[in-house]
Specification:
With 354 residues, the chain is α/β, with parallel strands linked by helices. It contains 14 helices and 17 strands. Bound molecules: iron/sulfur cluster.
Amino acid sequence: MNKVKSLYIHVPFCHKICDYCDFTKLQYFRNFAVKYLDALEEELKAYQIKDLKTIYVGGGTPTALEDDLFEELLKIIDPYVNGVEEYTFEANPESLSLDKIKMLKSHGVNRVSIGVQTTDDKILNMVNRDHTFEQVKTAIKSLKETGIDNINVDLILGLPHSSETILRKDLENILSLNIKHISCYGLTVNPHTVLFNKGYKEPEGDLLRAFYDTVEEELTKNGFVHYEVSNWAKPGYQSEHNLTYWRNEEYFGCGLGASGYIGETRYKNTVNLSQYIDRVFVNEKELVSEKDKRTYQIMLNLRTIEGLDISFVKDKQEEIDSLISSGLLIKKDHKLIPTYEGMMVLDQILLKLI
Ligand code: SF4
């Protein structure tokens, strides 16, 4: 029986490259996108994909594709959609037109994740984002009117010129949109990004922690559950697809630079577009030993409030007791669950348990 219930598809194209971006992405050119979709269709067909529960189409910017190619992408995915419970598309506000929203709806997409990052138009412009908060509002209104109300918004904590005041305004603006899910990631400044070359530094630990404390306070006060280090959801709206990763379950990964986990193998696809178009998909493979599997289990399970089955760390009783008495973990039945404090210092917990 096929145990793999989740599929990730990467669409690497963007119209404009953001200053902080370290994802696998390329400038959009129609002729590349046409060839890319052909290769993607072939890659998908090569796996025995059936009976999925979740599909997640990320990027890059899937909505960067022109309408006819966007529809073609949806048609390429159609054969795998039957029975899927959560089908997510990532989108950028400026390219999430009403026509695209209608296409998403008619092909069964029931969740949309929008890259908002901040609601401050000046900062958006400074980091080369191509949208305004007004466009976010319009896109979310259109999604809801079309019947897609399971919506996530991504925010970045610590963008250049951000502050506590701006973050509070961001949260107020986002909460006014009445959405189901919010992801907040601390800014990372990776080499080869424009921000790095400009000498910009990531927010220091204390500042980032203060930002997280504000997010936690505002979102939990407004009925969101902090269910994963960087993710808050209204009850019943956790990302089922992302929970696949955090439960250490298997998933197919297709598209440029995508990662997957099937059977005993974790793999990563090439990030080279020419290779990908030439049908050389997988670039790295890692055979997961029992020991590695346990390590992944601990690292990933402890990110969420579903927690880790204590049987994976039964040789670490002393460390567990100390983590519980320091308020970083709680024990509930046979599970170890991180507290908010524990999520904020997850690396320290992992150092003790792995
Ligand atoms: S839209 Fe996303 S993937 Fe594209 S450049 Fe910006 S951050 Fe990177």
